[in-house]
Amino acid sequence: MIDLKNPVFIVLRTEWFEKFASGAKKTEYRRIGGKFTRERCVVGRSVLLSKGYGKKARLTGRITSYAEIAQSRAPRAAQEYYPDATRLAAIGIRLDASPHARPKRPGTKQAKSVKRAKSRTKDRNPGKKRTR
Q1: One digit per residue, pLDDT tens: the chain, 132 residues?
Q2: How far is CA 116 from its chain centroid?
Q3: What CATH code would you report for 8-101?
Q4: Is the pTM of this model over 0.85?
Protein backbone atom coordinates (compact mmCIF):
# COMPACT_ATOMS: atom_id res chain seq x y z
CA MET A 1 0.00 0.00 0.00
CA ILE A 2 1.28 3.46 -0.93
CA ASP A 3 1.46 6.08 1.85
CA LEU A 4 0.40 9.32 0.17
CA LYS A 5 0.78 11.34 3.39
CA ASN A 6 4.57 11.38 3.12
CA PRO A 7 6.07 13.73 0.53
CA VAL A 8 7.80 12.50 -2.61
CA PHE A 9 11.53 13.03 -1.98
CA ILE A 10 13.37 14.28 -5.07
CA VAL A 11 17.14 14.76 -5.03
CA LEU A 12 18.41 17.42 -7.44
CA ARG A 13 21.76 18.66 -8.65
CA THR A 14 22.62 22.21 -7.59
CA GLU A 15 21.88 23.62 -11.06
CA TRP A 16 18.32 22.27 -11.16
CA PHE A 17 17.62 23.00 -7.48
CA GLU A 18 18.51 26.66 -7.97
CA LYS A 19 16.30 26.86 -11.07
CA PHE A 20 13.36 25.57 -9.02
CA ALA A 21 14.19 28.05 -6.23
CA SER A 22 14.27 30.98 -8.69
CA GLY A 23 11.04 29.90 -10.37
CA ALA A 24 12.69 29.21 -13.74
CA LYS A 25 11.92 25.46 -13.55
CA LYS A 26 8.48 24.05 -12.78
CA THR A 27 8.66 20.50 -14.18
CA GLU A 28 10.93 17.64 -13.16
CA TYR A 29 11.59 14.78 -15.59
CA ARG A 30 12.33 11.30 -14.25
CA ARG A 31 12.47 7.73 -15.53
CA ILE A 32 9.11 6.05 -14.90
CA GLY A 33 9.28 3.51 -12.10
CA GLY A 34 9.97 3.26 -8.38
CA LYS A 35 8.54 6.35 -6.73
CA PHE A 36 7.92 8.13 -10.04
CA THR A 37 4.73 6.39 -11.18
CA ARG A 38 1.19 7.63 -11.78
CA GLU A 39 0.03 5.91 -8.57
CA ARG A 40 2.66 7.66 -6.41
CA CYS A 41 2.82 11.08 -8.07
CA VAL A 42 -0.78 12.05 -7.41
CA VAL A 43 -1.78 15.66 -8.07
CA GLY A 44 -1.88 17.48 -4.74
CA ARG A 45 0.69 15.27 -3.01
CA SER A 46 3.47 17.12 -1.24
CA VAL A 47 7.02 17.13 -2.60
CA LEU A 48 10.36 17.68 -0.90
CA LEU A 49 13.10 18.89 -3.25
CA SER A 50 16.61 18.48 -1.90
CA LYS A 51 19.89 19.93 -3.15
CA GLY A 52 21.88 16.71 -2.98
CA TYR A 53 21.33 14.50 0.03
CA GLY A 54 22.13 17.18 2.63
CA LYS A 55 19.43 18.59 4.91
CA LYS A 56 20.30 22.29 4.67
CA ALA A 57 18.92 23.20 1.25
CA ARG A 58 15.38 21.96 0.76
CA LEU A 59 12.22 23.23 -0.87
CA THR A 60 8.66 22.07 -0.31
CA GLY A 61 5.80 22.09 -2.77
CA ARG A 62 2.92 20.17 -4.33
CA ILE A 63 2.51 18.09 -7.45
CA THR A 64 0.37 20.02 -9.93
CA SER A 65 0.53 17.61 -12.87
CA TYR A 66 1.81 14.23 -13.96
CA ALA A 67 2.23 13.02 -17.52
CA GLU A 68 4.06 10.14 -19.13
CA ILE A 69 5.75 11.47 -22.26
CA ALA A 70 7.98 10.10 -25.00
CA GLN A 71 11.65 10.64 -24.26
CA SER A 72 11.95 12.60 -27.51
CA ARG A 73 9.46 15.23 -26.18
CA ALA A 74 11.51 15.91 -23.03
CA PRO A 75 14.06 18.72 -22.77
CA ARG A 76 17.55 17.96 -24.10
CA ALA A 77 19.06 17.63 -20.59
CA ALA A 78 16.53 14.92 -19.68
CA GLN A 79 17.13 13.12 -22.98
CA GLU A 80 20.88 13.10 -22.33
CA TYR A 81 20.48 11.95 -18.73
CA TYR A 82 18.07 9.12 -19.63
CA PRO A 83 19.30 8.04 -23.10
CA ASP A 84 17.93 4.48 -22.85
CA ALA A 85 14.44 5.41 -21.56
CA THR A 86 11.59 5.37 -24.05
CA ARG A 87 9.16 7.23 -21.77
CA LEU A 88 9.66 9.71 -18.95
CA ALA A 89 7.49 11.08 -16.16
CA ALA A 90 6.94 14.86 -16.41
CA ILE A 91 6.06 15.98 -12.88
CA GLY A 92 4.73 19.53 -12.53
CA ILE A 93 5.64 21.10 -9.17
CA ARG A 94 4.42 24.30 -7.49
CA LEU A 95 6.59 25.46 -4.61
CA ASP A 96 5.05 26.54 -1.32
CA ALA A 97 4.92 30.29 -0.73
CA SER A 98 6.36 29.97 2.78
CA PRO A 99 9.28 32.35 3.41
CA HIS A 100 11.13 29.42 4.99
CA ALA A 101 10.78 27.30 1.85
CA ARG A 102 13.67 29.04 0.10
CA PRO A 103 17.16 28.39 1.43
CA LYS A 104 19.37 31.20 2.72
CA ARG A 105 22.58 31.11 0.75
CA PRO A 106 25.81 32.08 2.55
CA GLY A 107 27.13 35.48 1.50
CA THR A 108 23.76 37.03 0.65
CA LYS A 109 22.35 40.09 2.44
CA GLN A 110 19.57 37.96 3.90
CA ALA A 111 21.99 35.42 5.40
CA LYS A 112 24.24 38.18 6.80
CA SER A 113 21.33 40.04 8.42
CA VAL A 114 20.10 36.81 10.04
CA LYS A 115 23.60 36.12 11.35
CA ARG A 116 23.89 39.68 12.79
CA ALA A 117 20.47 39.41 14.43
CA LYS A 118 21.45 36.12 16.09
CA SER A 119 24.70 37.58 17.44
CA ARG A 120 22.84 40.62 18.87
CA THR A 121 20.39 38.42 20.75
CA LYS A 122 23.29 36.46 22.27
CA ASP A 123 24.83 39.71 23.57
CA ARG A 124 21.53 40.76 25.17
CA ASN A 125 21.06 37.56 27.16
CA PRO A 126 21.87 38.72 30.74
CA GLY A 127 21.26 35.30 32.29
CA LYS A 128 24.30 33.75 30.70
CA LYS A 129 27.86 34.69 31.52
CA ARG A 130 30.27 34.75 28.67
CA THR A 131 33.72 33.38 29.22
CA ARG A 132 36.58 33.75 26.84
Answers
A1: 677 889 999 999 999 999 999 999 999 999 999 999 999 999 999 999 999 998 899 999 999 999 999 999 999 999 999 999 999 999 999 999 854 444 445 555 555 555 555 555 555 555 555 565
A2: 27
A3: 2.30.130.30
A4: no
